[in-house]
Design brief:
This protein is an all-alpha fold and 114 residues long. Helix content is 51%, strand content 0%. Helix 3 crosses helix 4.
C-alpha cells in the first residue's frame, strides 16, 4: 500500500550527524541531480493507496537499485552497504539510524527490480 507518507526518517533527520558530504561523490551527484519527484510519481501508480500494509520508501528502493547496478553489487551487498555507507544513505535519503536498523531486506529488491 502506498500512502504517500514517510515511514522512515530521512537523511537530514539525523540532526546529530554533522558530516560534510563530498559534492563530487557519485552518489551525492546522483541524489542532488536526479528528478526524484517525477520518478517517484510515476512509480506511485503501481501501488494501491487503500489496501495492504504500507510500503517501504520508494526512494530507498530506487536508490538501492541505482547503486546496485552502478557498483555491480548483489542484493545482499547493497543492503549491507546501506547499513555502512553514509553516501548510499544520502542517495536513498534514509537516516543512519533507520539504515542500520535494517528497514529493508535484500529479498525486497527481488520483487522491485526491472
Amino acid at each position: 500500500m502506498y500512502n504517500g507518507e514517510r515511514l522512515q526518517r530521512n537523511f537530514q533527520d539525523a540532526f546529530w550527524l554533522k558530516v560534510e558530504m563530498d559534492k563530487n561523490h557519485l552518489f551525492v551527484k546522483i541524489a542532488d541531480n536526479f528528478n526524484w519527484d517525477k520518478v517517484l510519481g510515476e512509480l506511485k501508480k503501481f501501488y494501491c493507496s487503500n489496501n495492504g500494509r504500507s510500503t517501504i520508501s520508494t526512494r530507498l528502493k530506487v536508490g538501492l537499485l541505482i547503486a546496485k547496478h552502478l557498483k555491480k553489487w548483489s542484493d545482499v551487498e547493497v543492503t549491507e552497504q546501506l547499513r555502512e555507507n553514509l553516501y548510499l544513505q544520502y542517495l536513498c535519503d534514509i537516516s543512519p539510524e533507520d539504515a542500520t536498523r535494517g528497514v529493508i531486506n535484500e529479498s525486497s529488491l527481488t520483487y522491485f527490480s526491472p
